[in-house]
Fold Calcium and integrin binding family member 4.
Amino acid sequence: MGQEVSTYVLPNEEIEEYQVLTFLSRQEIISFHHKMFMELANSEEPHHGNIRLSSRIVSSLPELKVNPFRDRICMVFADEDGEFSFDEFLEMMSVLSDNAPLKVKIEYAFRIYDFNGNNYIDEEDLWTVILRLINQNELSEDEITSLVEHILEEADLDNDNFLTPAEFENAIAKAPDFFNDNQERHFYCH
Ligand SMILES: [Ca+2]
Ligand SMILES: [Ca+2]
């Protein structure tokens, strides 16, 4: 038995604030609040203020469930304890939405792909990203090595083997097959 949608409280001034802070419409904000965050929380509290969702619960959403980067997405958007307040949850939904500008999506993709956390996309990160995007045995080790080399050749403008955010942004424009097709499919939930 589902709770009545009307039992959840999202005051108008908060909705208006979220409209300023996110790329989401009024309807999307209300819907993400009532039908996702509050439903998942399954709490007696009508207001989201004290509610936190675990990364485990958030990654069970259909929007994230099949995404090979869902753990990284949660890591980037959740607080340091791996939990989501409604603000953090909504920020994630906003960046994942079609309305978020590409530049913003790329900024977050950079953080999601920076597995080793050194603020660069490097060879190690590219290997990890590729291994998550392909099916097992789809590419041989040699093929992955040459794909990584190819991406760096195209994108690493100062040849230091590390992609800065600017070089990474450039790479997405230059290598649409890898970054756009796969990324659209997996990261942006299409
Ligand atoms: Ca890195
Ligand atoms: Ca570089």
Summary: The first helix runs from residue 12 to 21. Residues 178-190 have pLDDT under 50 and may be disordered.
